[in-house]
Amino acid sequence: MSEFLTHMILSIPPDLPDYDNAVQKLLDQEAEAARRYLDEGSFTRVWREPGTRNHWALWTAPDADFIHRAYASFPLFRYMQVEVHALALNTNDPPTRRAREAEAFHRASHGGH
Questions:
Q1: Which domains are seen in the chain, by residue range?
Q2: Contact partners, residue 56, CB within 8 Å, separation at least 6
Q3: Which terminus of the chain, N or C, has fewer Cβ atoms within 10 Å?
Q4: Residue 55: helix, strand or coil by DSSP?
């Protein structure tokens, strides 16, 4: 599995008939569609851009095609622009560094075994 950062920009047309009710219905359907990916752990984190419905999300997935299929299954997809960025490990990432330091400590405290 790999990690991906996505940026989703949502542009719902203001002339959508019965705008408020239509948008609320779509948002409710969207939440239901996303629940599958949240429950299985592939939709890992999500941050909203203040003042918008746009978001940045962290995904754990086998490939970018998986993420494309996920977004394409969402009711709001026709109003989305989605960028998918593959992520690579960085040795300066705090969790990576902590794991490396813990392993070194464990080796040192157990005589290198």
A1: 2-88 (3.30.70.1060)
A2: 5, 6, 7, 8, 46, 47, 49
A3: C
A4: strand
How many Cβ atoms are within 10 Å of 100's Cβ, its own excluded? 12
Other Cβ atoms within 10 Å of 68 Cβ, number: 15
Rg for the chain, CA atoms, rounded: 19
Transcribe 9-21 into DSSP letters. EE---TT-TTHHH
Tokens of 109: 């405290």
**At residue 112, does pLDDT exceed 90?**
no
Report which of 36, 33, 39, 45 is spatially closest to residue 76, judged by C-alpha positions.
Answer: 33
* Per-residue model confidence as pLDDT tens digits over 45-56: 999 999 999 999
56-79 confidence digits (pLDDT tens)? 999 999 999 999 999 999 999 999
